[in-house]
């Protein structure tokens, strides 16, 4: 256990913050509620970006960029949308400041002469400004589908913040599309949810539940919202990605029309979908341990750390030269490798540092290894050691990284399975929601009043109605009315 890390069993919340800060992912900003993403954390986000960007382009989407500022009148055009975001918006009212003297001190205040004719909202999400532009670009069915993605920052004025999981400003991608038919929009919504699920499971090693949000939990302005939900080590849920079928709500608000093949004018059908830097936090909470970060090889900025070992009369130059050759070979094989040949730092201190940073595989190379024509490989997940002949270096390192990736997913899947429980009554749900927590599968009648009562009394929400949850007759745990399927209830971040 790292001395700088609070044990999970002692204080999970503090443990998480310790890992983010001590693992050099992010730090607190002078701006309240915001964070500084450090190079190690930003490198994780960059790897996420690269993979997702490729996946988006493979499904026909192209990148664009839209302004940070949105006219206030735009946000008011879609009734549910303005209601959903009104309390989170930052607003720009003036274009410049002026220096004045107050109580003998110089300070800055808005210049009354620079009041904006129309106030601007700092982007909380971009549906409004993007569909205003789509309305200019789309005239005919031949212009559809229009498939756009944007990598950007957004601002949502949060009252309670936590590094990566909930910050006033965060980074994300937001996809926005326009289609000629409702069926095409629905197909797009589900396709992009599958992209997120594939990325979460195959790259992040995080198992997710796919499903539909309730009316109460859906995105403001959407016809319906699909999501992927993950379970963290403390048995709280985390919304890991959303895909929204917006219907024609925004198209009507922004007069986004096209002329169909019969020459008639119709409103387009829209979708939007997003994935943010909160998923860096999901990596920490899903895989980290009391020794530090544990990063999946497919997203780790450094996949392999090489630590040459020498003492006293050991042939330091030959050991370091051999370590450099190992690095060269692994880089040529496509891995991201760091060689730690620092003087004045003990091997134990180096091991601790690379474990803290979550590097999946450590390679140790000392005099005995050099004499035996091998290196010692140490897995970050369980610290298991394996001697690997230098003649078999590349294929065995590749196999070890694949093994670590697979084992991380399987471990997370097993934890989720152990924390997924069916409950038969409201009393049972209330008894279990804090301990053991997890996904509690309970019958629900579909009534928003029953859903609201559970949230008010237990702080648990319906995370989703899972696609793979079988039909099953039962009675709502709250009111006793008929139910045909169980919902996933959980406390969530």
What is the compact description of this entry?
The chain is of the alpha+beta class. The protein is built from 14 helices and 27 strands. Helix 2 crosses helix 6.
Please supply descriptive tags for the structure shown above.
3 domains, five-stranded mixed sheet, alpha+beta, Translation Initiation Factor IF3, globular, eleven-stranded mixed sheet, Rossmann fold, 493 residues
What would your notes on this structure say?
The protein is an alpha+beta fold and 493 residues long. It has three domains: 12-90 and 122-287, 2-Layer Sandwich (BirA Bifunctional Protein, domain 2), CATH 3.30.930; 304-400, Rossmann fold (3-Layer(aba) Sandwich); 421-490, Translation Initiation Factor IF3. The longest helix is centred in the C-terminal third of the chain and has 26 residues, at 393-418. The radius of gyration is 26 Å and the shape is globular. The protein starts with 11 loop residues before the first helix and ends with a strand. The mean pLDDT is 97.
Mean pLDDT: 97
- How many structural domains are formed by the residues? 3
How far apart lie the N and C ends?
Answer: 26 Å
What helical percentage do the residues reach? 25-40%
Number of strands: 27
The strands making up the biggest β-sheet line up spatially as: 3-9-10-16-13-12-11-24-27-23-22
Structural class: alpha+beta
CATH architecture of the largest domain: 2-Layer Sandwich
Helical element count? 14
Q: Given the C-alpha coordinates, what overall shape results? A: globular
β-strand percent reads 25-35%
Rg computed from alpha carbons, rounded to a whole number of angstroms:
26 Å
